[in-house]
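Box 3.1 A note on notation
Throughout this textbook, protein chains are presented in two layers. The first layer is the amino acid sequence; the second is a token string describing backbone geometry. Keep the layers aligned when reading.
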Amino acid sequence: MRGCQPVVTVATVSGHGHDPGPEPSAGAQAFELETSLGYLVGMVSRRMTRELNQQLQPFGVTAAQFVVLAVLWEQDGLAQNLIADDNRYQRVYLTPAGRRLRETLPALAAGVNEAAAADLSADDLAVLRSLLGRVRTALGVARIAPGASGPEPVREGW
């Protein structure tokens, strides 16, 4: 394994020109950031998370905390290591305030999802969900399935 080495440097450039840098070597594999699945999914995720954070701010909850609340609304009292990437085995329970938020917050998250999918047909949205589910499975990302007897850890966003 390599040690940590800087992979970029920042320099102040005078003028308005842009130096594209050296041409890629002949053996370098082509990679276009704008068409990268990881880049596109990451950009969408960050934008949706930013919007959800703005919606949740008046309630003192972040998008990451919303994920924990949503999981606990489905199954309260889960072990901490099943909710987050954590080695501790402590049970996590909703407080009365956390239970009351269930009346308001899911609609906010649903609104963010609806806004993100506004230009998609129902068929397009079904295909997108199916494809993302397949990508998720290929990457081995675990989740808690509603009604599952042995929940797996939740380690990603809302």
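The radius of gyration is 21 Å. Residues 33-139 form a domain with the Arc Repressor Mutant, subunit A fold (CATH 1.10.10.10).
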